[in-house]
Amino acid sequence: MDANALYDMLRKVQEPKGYYFSDDQQRVIELLEALLVNKDRYGYMACPCRLASGDKAHDRDIICPCVYREPDVAEFGSCYCNLYVSQEWNDGKIEKAYVPERRPPEKLFP
What we know:
This protein is mainly α. 46% of the residues lie in helices and 4% in strands. The chain has six helices and two strands. A two-stranded antiparallel sheet has the order 1-2. Helix 1 crosses helix 2. The longest helix has 18 residues, at 25-42. It is globular.
């Protein structure tokens, strides 16, 4: 699978849930390519914006879409990576603010 195929597959699943890909198409494709690299490397699509340990149980919270996506998009209009965003984010109706890391410090450095 390549990034474009992953894009098409995930878009069909995530948009009905209210999660859209950022309108920055280049960034989205780069992030999807990185997810595929992590899938090859670890056997699961760990968030490309965080340091994965290679231990799936430890990294369960950062397997994309991570458990932090929902609260990040609800509060900021975007997930930490800016991969998944709200429609308002893409439409420019909300400020594109920095999304802080929600992952607990003890999980940051495995």
